[in-house]
Design goal:
single chain; alpha+beta; Phosphorylase Kinase, domain 1; Transferase(Phosphotransferase), domain 1; five-stranded antiparallel beta sheet; three-stranded antiparallel beta sheet; 6 helices; binds adenosine-5'-triphosphate; binds magnesium ion
Length: 209
């Protein structure tokens, strides 16, 4: 299908997200656009590897019990993933409108990230714009383009540190709610103290380098 006839819903640094349909169902297509500054053959290989990795992590996270979009198709030639269009709003906009629900929503975030990490999956870009709150109140995690698996404590620590920075700058008025994420994370994550020690180490490293 030609992207020029589809409705674009987001454009990131690496590609675009379009609304479409797949076998009669509402779908979303995420496309990695070519980068003109790379040698074409190398560019195609990089883009197709990233698409493959993102689709694999979305599936692995789903198998680990996290709500992620169902993958309908992975096209390694066109470098695009066709997936279920998940109904709902981004956690970013939900928290902006309903800051009073921060404790509950942050609890969901912490529990789900712990599940990801218990399966040794690191997301790589844990922002509240990469999470949806579905109509039935579930947390759906999107955008595994920066993720990797299997990871160790360092990868998990980086995930949590980036989450903290992103959360505080995206939600300056409810900064305190970040601790609800960590409380829920520590309840669900095995050996959570190792990760939290690593987070502190990463912060100290940033401070002294
Ligand atoms: N499966 C989906 N269902 C509903 N909405 C989606 C879905 N996938 C993406 N979106 C919407 O599109 C936005 C952008 O998607 P995504 O975060 O995957 O791409 P991106 O940030 O542009 O990508 P990248 O960081 O890989 O360049 C999301 O914030 C969300 O609002
Ligand atoms: Mg994103």
């Amino acid at each position: 299908m030609d992207c020029s006839t589809m409705t674009e819903i987001a454009r990131g640094a690496e590609g675009s997200v379009y609304e479409s349909t797949y076998l009669g169902k509402d779908a979303v297509i995420k496309v990695r656009a070519p980068k003109g500054y790379r040698v074409p053959e190398l560019d195609r290989r990089i883009r197709s590897q990233r698409i493959r990795s993102e689709a694999r992590l979305i599936r692995e996270a789903r198998s680990a019990g996290i709500r992620t979009p169902m993958i309908y198709d992975v096209d390694l030639t066109e470098c695009r993933i066709t997936m279920e269009k998940v109904g709902g709003v981004t956690v970013k906009s939900h928290l902006d409108e309903h800051p009073e629900e921060a404790e509950h929503i942050c609890g969901l975030i912490g529990t789900n990230i712990a599940r990801l990490h218990n399966s040794r999956i690191c997301h790589g870009d844990l922002t509240t714009s990469n999470m949806l709150l579905t109509e039935d109140g579930q947390l759906c995690i999107l955008d595994f383009s920066m993720g990797s698996a299997p990871v160790g404590v360092e990868g998990m620590g980086v995930d949590i540190r980036l989450l903290e920075r992103g959360f505080n700058s995206a939600h300056p008025d409810i900064k305190d709610a970040y601790r609800f994420i960590i409380e829920a994370y520590c309840r669900e994550k095995t050996d959570s103290e190792q990760v939290m020690t690593k987070v502190q180490e990463i912060k100290d490293r940033g401070r002294y380098t």
